[in-house]
Specification:
- The chain is an alpha/beta fold.
- It is 41% helix and 19% strand.
- The chain has 2 domains: 132 residues, Nucleotidyltransferase, domain 5, CATH 3.30.420.40; 174 residues, 2-Layer Sandwich (Nucleotidyltransferase, domain 5).
- It has 10 helices and 10 strands.
- The strands form 2 sheets. Strands 3-2-1-4-5 form a 5-stranded mixed sheet, with helices on both faces. The chain has a 5-stranded mixed sheet with strand order 8-7-6-9-10, with helices on both faces.
- Strand 6 and strand 7 form a beta hairpin.
- The longest helix is centred in the C-terminal third of the chain and has 27 residues.
- The two termini are 39 Å apart.
- The structure holds 5'-O-[(R)-(carboxyoxy)(hydroxy)phosphoryl]adenosine and zinc ion (ZN).
- The site of zinc ion has 5 residues, from helix 4.
Length: 341
């Protein structure tokens, strides 16, 4: 394939439990996006085991980069710059991607760009759907639930964040209580399709002193107490003894989605922002997509979601935002370091 060399960025992502590589042209056009998921390796433990994640990245990273180049129909000779997730994430996982990115940059004399994982999630939604800045970004994943004012690609100012658990973490924990498979978000939302979301009235977070925000640990505890029959001292029943599991899943999902929608749109109104971009793993949730879109419509606002493949961890968003960093001269040296925070 003939491509202007300077337009292609190879992105590498290894911050958590997905090894990913992608080739993106001019920050938007995704030529390839490969994700090697470790879900099966972590599933028996009900969560990500950092030691396993690091080893698995080591095994998968080179084949994943090779596949991203193959799928795009290009070789390293066509690549103009390397972008890599530098933070935040599991340190042993981040270091694997970083080592490969630095080695390629050194060997091929290619510019190196460090990308912040959360800034890339927020950028992901805008790759497929151009937006006018400023806009409001909701990043909602397994580790983060926060609202940002976005003034341009990767230009985020935090406006609110969860006081405790991330929304995805709440989905994952409720899935464990209900005996559903890991990761919890997809399995809870699948079961919720069979249940009644109005069956149980779980608590919703409400803005404190007029300031929108999030909290999910009270909701998680409310689900636990519901399962224990309001007797906090009673042990949690084993999943097979829980009645109306689908109603619990649907009612929990309804409360979580309600909190995300009301708080996000309240912040958009307060900040005078007409567009909301939603990204991160929980942005895959069909009920969230439906309710956020309808509620934004009612207020004359616009809600924008990436395709599900670009909601969860991927390297297309890293290559995409990496392009903007590269074009504005924000290059990293070979001393680029990983950071967990
Ligand atoms: O962005 P992501 O892939 O990794 C992090 O950076 O955390 O997000 C993973 C999170 C998990 O908590 C997972 O349960 C949640 O996203 N998730 C969902 C859905 N799909 C994934 N939560 C709710 N509904 C879904 N359909
Ligand atoms: Zn993520």
């Amino acid at each position: 394939m003939t491509s202007a060399r300077s337009e292609l960025v190879l992105g590498i992502e290894s911050s958590c439990d997905d090894t990913a590589a992608a080739v993106v042209r001019t920050g938007r056009e995704i030529l390839s996006s490969v994700v090697d998921s470790q879900i099966a390796e972590h599933a028996p433990f009900g969560g990500v085991v950092p030691e396993i994640a690091g080893r698995s990245h080591l095994r998968a990273i080179i084949p994943t980069v090779d596949r991203a180049l193959d799928d795009a129909g290009v070789s390293l000779d066509d690549i103009g710059a390397i972008a890599v997730t530098e933070r935040p994430g599991l340190i042993g996982s981040l270091l694997v991607g970083l080592c490969v990115a630095k080695s390629l940059s050194f060997a091929r004399k290619l510019p190196l760009v460090g990308v912040h994982h959360i800034e890339a999630h927020a950028y992901a939604a805008t790759m497929e759907h151009p937006v006018d800045y400023p806009t409001l970004a909701l990043v909602v994943s397994g580790g983060h639930t926060a609202l940002y004012r976005m003034d341009g690609p990767g230009e985020l100012t935090k406006k609110a964040q969860t006081l405790d658990d991330a929304a995805g973490e709440a989905f994952d924990k409720v899935a464990v209580m209900l005996g559903l498979s890991y990761p919890g978000g997809p399995s809870v939302s699948r079961l919720a399709l069979e249940g009644d979301g109005t069956a149980i009235r779980f608590p919703r977070y409400r803005a404190k002193d007029g300031k929108p925000g999030f909290s999910f640990s009270g909701l998680k505890t409310a689900v636990l107490y519901h399962l224990r029959g309001q007797d906090a001292l009673r042990p949690t029943p084993p999943p097979e003894e829980i009645e109306n599991k689908a109603d619990v899943a649907a009612s929990f999902q309804e409360a979580a989605v309600d909190t995300l929608v009301t708080q996000t749109l309240a912040m958009a109104e307060q900040e005078g922002l007409g567009t909301v971009v939603v990204s991160g793993g929980v942005a895959c949730n069909a009920r969230l997509r439906e309710r956020m879109t309808a509620a934004a419509d009612e207020r004359g606002m616009r809600a924008v979601f990436p395709s599900p493949a670009y909601c969860t961890d991927n390297a297309a968003m890293i290559a995409g935002l990496g392009w903007h960093r590269w074009q504005s001269g924000q290059l990293a040296g070979l001393d680029l370091d990983a950071s967990a925070r």
